[in-house]
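BUG: 3D viewer hangs when loading the predicted structure for this chain

Environment: internal workstation, default settings.
Expected: structure renders.
Actual: progress bar stalls at 90%.

Input used:
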Amino acid sequence: MMNMIEKIIAAHSKQAVVKPGEIVDVLIDARVARDFGGANVVKNILDNGLDVDDATRTFFTFDCNPGGSDQKYAANQHFCRQYAREKGIRVYDIDAGIGTHLAIENGLAWPGSTFVSTDSHANIMGAIGAFGQGMGDQDIAATWARGSVWFKVPESVKLVLIGDRPRGVSAKDIVLNLLNIFGANKLLGYSIEMHGPVVDGLSLDERITIASMATEMGAIILLFPPSNAVLDELEALSGKRYDGVNADPGAVYAQQLTIDVSDFKPMVAMPGHPHDDTALVEVRGRKIDSAFIGSCTNGRIEDLRITAEVLKGRKVAPGVVLKIVPATDRIWQQALDEGLIRIFKDAGALVSNAGCAGCAAGQVGQNGPEEVTISTGNRNFSGKQGKGFVYLASPAAVAASAVAGVITGPDTMPEEVANFGPIGKFDQYKAATLRTDAQRPTVVEGRVWVIMKDDIDTDMIFHNRYLTITDIAEMGRYTFDNLSGYEDFAKKAQPGDIVITAKNFGAGSSRQQAVDCFQSLGVHCILAESFGAIYERNAINAAFPILTYEAGLIDALGLATGDRIRVDYLSGDIEHLGNGRKARLNPFNEVQATIFQRGGLL
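Structure tokens produced before the viewer hung:
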């Protein structure tokens, strides 16, 4: 008896049955690289003398910067187009929209299928009952070349939503309420199956909104068993009729949780963390400078209709900029046909071509220092959407706030509109001396950095403004320059240093640079209580040592920044070289050891 994730993985492996913890080779139905990761994927293919396994299953999606407004993005896109022509690879170019949404619209992914992308929100495929995963450049290159990739079968949690959904509580509010309950690491590494009467009544667009924030919850994926209505909509979009996929009766779950949504409220995520949520009423009246509606979370036609209901007959507040970006060109055209675009323009909004927009540091949606933005995106990490402060909310709340000039909901808009101007200036970049370390011993000694912060995300480690860098030698200087208190880490780090941190290190994006920057500096290894799922894969595949430990290790060893320790990757032994205390880490598993000894996945 298997649950949903186990059935999908088993169907794409050589095994009839799979169980949590098993590492299996998984055939991937659709293998995608985006514009910021695509050039690195091709570079990995070329540098390792590899070729494309099946061009009909291989795709580029140019969604991060559809305008090519950044020279490096433009160069990467052109490079990928040339490679695509040579290999017969389909390109969903700058006029198409967000790759994950295009996959759903065009039948590249379907219930029960497998999908990988350099997009860390590829697990949005859970909305249609498919397995989707964001992966780093080496993972995608390996998948392009081999057609399959290793994956550890995750444990599953069955989450049942019951109760009467309150009026005004959108799908975005549902997932923000869930984030408020579970945070960023309570469901870390689990596959979450969504069940219950509330789930049964969700539309495809609403499921996409919720599924798109699985990464922010630390989950592998949020899987929705497709309803008949969803299957009908998928058929209307792609022209193909699919069967649903469901868990077997008696399937085993690590946990079964029931949540009553009756008390859910319209929510806002506070700047810095998607899981730092509060009721919208608690922050009502705070001034904003800008507003953004779009992203893979809320760029669907239902989101745009809700936005139009709020904006119709109204104007965006003076001094506020409202940016609206549909998820795909098909949705853009539908909004045009329904008259929504005219409503947006009459209200004073900027409407851009389909794509990811400011969420991915490209196109439109960025904010400046001290600028306050309310956004429908899925992430508001410091620096993620610019240098300002980003609140996350539903399309209705964002549209109402844009009109009012302050954070509010559509039912509580003030009579007087706020009027003010933005302030702030841009920070200067910081540089450090480049360092490299080619040796990879299995027993190492080094100076310790103890950074006991949970949920250090990839934007803190290696900010998205540097994503076009492909030379590892350049990356080290930017390490941690967006982590408060450690902006000068790269200047102070020495070859052979060891970083010890807390839970969920590397949460967030699929960027390989967040691993490679440490290799650039010559850091020996990173020890943490747990790692973000994608970050863990990227580090293992890059042969960069990461190990986990159980709570209490720091105190047991009496460790502090500047101490020296010895670490054995294969045995898990760790020793404080100052006081002689010893403890155990979780050592390399077989796959990690093999990849490490080979010098990397490729």
